[in-house]
Design brief:
With about 400 residues, this protein is α/β, with parallel strands linked by helices. It contains 13 helices and eleven strands. α3 crosses α7. The mean pLDDT is about 95. The structure holds pyridoxal-5'-phosphate. The site of pyridoxal-5'-phosphate has 14 residues, from α3 and α4.
């Protein structure tokens, strides 16, 4: 499909190309100087003590869960309105995801009020996800975690550069995870980063990233070591130098790109307010500093979402859904069933949400056209009495 306006787009130029060529010419492709520098620069940018680069965001969530010592019998509180990898990483560690509702239609992050009600003697951790790059209320969640002695994990895949006050997202938990997948604010293709201020967590993550071997290929290449010991069950979750080199360039552009995303978001809000006020956009006048990863809208109840998305597609506009709730997927329904009435807001938002195109290089003039197209399509499709579910 050749989209007139894709959902997401890369912000790549000559600098990324040069960085890749430099790595190819160096004749060292896996973890080395580029990766060390990427980690150092990312840690400095966030103001965090340790950053460990890995193969992808899912691997970084998995290593974060293992480093916290999650194990069978443990429960982890997690939103259902997130990407499946958020909950899967808990299951990889053998623990049980306990789904918590989101706050509301104007705030699609985990509901702080609902967290406490779901805590049991088996609860070990809270895993939050900063939906669309809009930070969860971390001061309040930290207070709850502290009061119950729970670990806190941030899935910050949407939120590189987001902050609460002066403190960047990634600093508000025991361990946080970022993704550099192609459609994220900082893109390397595949890639991820575990960040923490805890020396012991950083040590474990570094070890398990590369087979829990006590010396690295890089050290051996440099003549620092000739053999190794294996001290745990590890993985190959390494990143490579090509991706790290791209990541370093993307990191330099991140603040500028997030600012452009913010301006486009404001343009969307203003245009919807004027042309289609019945469309809700969550996180209006949000008190924290977002990374503006997504532009989610909520269709009025009863609008057939499939028909709407097909209408947009016919105009060449790519849309998506963030997210089909995890607890409604077959695997999770069978293995971790949820009471029918437990997640009403998640199910309502999950059935009405549509994500519109948002990326740093999106032309502001296109925003107006997308909103006008949205209005025209909504006028054409019939409103059904019963809510659309698919
Ligand atoms: C992208 C994403 C991930 C997984 O990252 P990958 O790099 O694709 O493995 C995890 N959680 C959320 C919320 C994401 O958006």
């Amino acid at each position: 499909m050749n989209w007139r306006i894709p959902l997401a787009d890369l912000n790549f130029g000559e600098e990324e190309k040069e960085a890749v060529m430099k790595v190819l010419d160096s004749r060292w492709l896996t973890m080395g100087e580029e990766t060390q520098n990427f980690e150092r620069e990312f840690a400095r940018y966030l103001g965090v003590k340790h950053a460990v680069a890995v193969a992808n965001g899912t691997a970084s969530l998995h290593l974060a869960c293992l480093a916290l010592g999650l194990k069978p019998g443990d429960e982890v509180l997690v939103p259902s309105l997130t990407f499946v990898a958020t909950a899967a990483s808990i299951v990889y560690a053998g623990a049980r995801p306990v789904f918590v509702d989101i706050a509301g239609e104007t705030n699609t992050n985990i509901s702080v009020e609902s967290i406490e009600a779901r805590i049991t003697p088996r609860t070990r951790a809270i895993m939050v996800m900063h939906y669309g790059g809009y930070p969860c209320d971390m001061p309040r969640i930290l207070e709850i975690a502290g009061r119950y002695g729970l670990a806190l994990i941030e899935d910050a895949a949407h939120a590189p550069g987001a902050a609460i006050g002066e403190k960047k997202i990634g600093n508000w938990s025991n361990v946080a995870s970022f993704s550099f997948f192609s459609n994220k604010n900082l893109a390397t293709g595949e890639g991820g980063m575990v960040v923490t201020n805890d020396d012991e967590i950083a040590r474990k993550v570094r070890l398990q990233r590369s087979h829990a071997m006590t010396t690295m290929t890089w050290d051996r290449h440099k003549g620092h070591a000739s053999s190794y010991e294996v001290v745990d069950l590890g993985f190959n979750y390494r990143i490579d130098e090509i991706r790290s080199a791209i990541g370093r360039i993307q990191l330099k552009k991140l603040d500028g790109n997030n600012t452009r995303r913010g301006k486009l978001t404001a343009a969307y809000r203003a245009a919807f307010q004027k042309l289609v006020p019945e469309i809700e956009i969550p996180f209006e006048q949000y008190p924290f500093s977002p990374a503006y990863h997504l532009l989610p809208i909520l269709l009025p109840a009863g609008v057939n979402r499939f028909a709407f998305m097909e209408g947009m597609k016919a105009q060449g506009i790519q849309t998506s859904i963030h997210y089909p709730p995890i607890h409604q997927f077959n695997y999770y329904r069978n293995r971790f069933p949820v009471e029918q009435t437990e997640l009403p807001v998640t199910e309502s938002v999950g059935s009405r949400e549509v994500t519109l195109p948002l990326y740093a290089d999106l032309d502001p003039a296109s925003v107006c056209w997308i909103v006008e197209t949205t209005r025209n399509i909504l006028q054409e499709i019939p409103v059904e009495r019963s809510r659309s579910v698919w």
